[in-house]
Amino acid sequence: MALAGGPGAAGEPVFVYGTLQRGHSNHHWLAGASFVGQRQLGGAQLFDLGPFPMAVAVAGDLEASSGVTASDAEASSTTETSATAAADSALAPIQGELYRVSANGLAQLDLLEGCPRLYGRHWLQLLDGSHAWVYLGRPRQVRHARLLADGRWRGRGRTQT
Questions:
Q1: Which among 69, 92, 102, 161 has the fewest CB atoms less than 10 Å away?
Q2: pLDDT tens across 101-117, in order?
């Protein structure tokens, strides 16, 4: 089901793929948020930075397929491209979870994610056609990180199995 109304309608939809997922160390930041379900994000690659993952847009894919717009906090930044973010159509989509959070909850997530310095928050279309805020890094931040070609971060800091 598509999330109608854009940002702010019945809570802010946020797609999470790392430590904010159920069973991981930062899931408590989503206390009070509504779990919508499992979702997938295409047009991006997922990298393992050790204690947390980082998704990075594949050069040109997200902008062309989903009309990426930067949040107000990052409006002055530009989308970067690099050889490490070259498109590889064999990559699996990023696996994650979709939540609806309050505006205050979204502001708290921005603090946790270091937005806009560490991650940028982008309004993106997910593979099911719904839209959500997604935190993305920049290609230069992952140039020495391990690519997770299956699109799934299993990571550290799990609170349950």
A1: 161
A2: 999 999 999 999 999 99
Residue 156: its pLDDT value, please? 66
**For residue 80, how many C-alpha atoms fall within 13 Å in the half-sphere facing its CB?**
16
Alpha carbon distance 45, 43 (integer Å): 7
Place of tokens 């069973």: 23
**d(C-alpha 59, C-alpha 40), whole Å:** 18
For residue 134, which of 47, 35, 87, 68 has the smallest C-alpha distance? 68
Tell me how far the alpha carbon of residue 104 is from its chain's centroid. 18
Convert 113-136 to b/e letters by CB count within 10 Å (16 or more is b).
bebbeebbbbbbbbeeebbbbbbb
What are the tokens at 93?
Answer: 């989509």
The sign of the dihedral angle between the CA atoms of 137, 139, 143, 147 is positive
pLDDT band (50, 70, 90) for residue 133? very high
pTM: 0.77
Give the number of other CB atoms < 10 A from CB of residue 76. Answer: 8
Percent of the chain with pLDDT over 70: 71
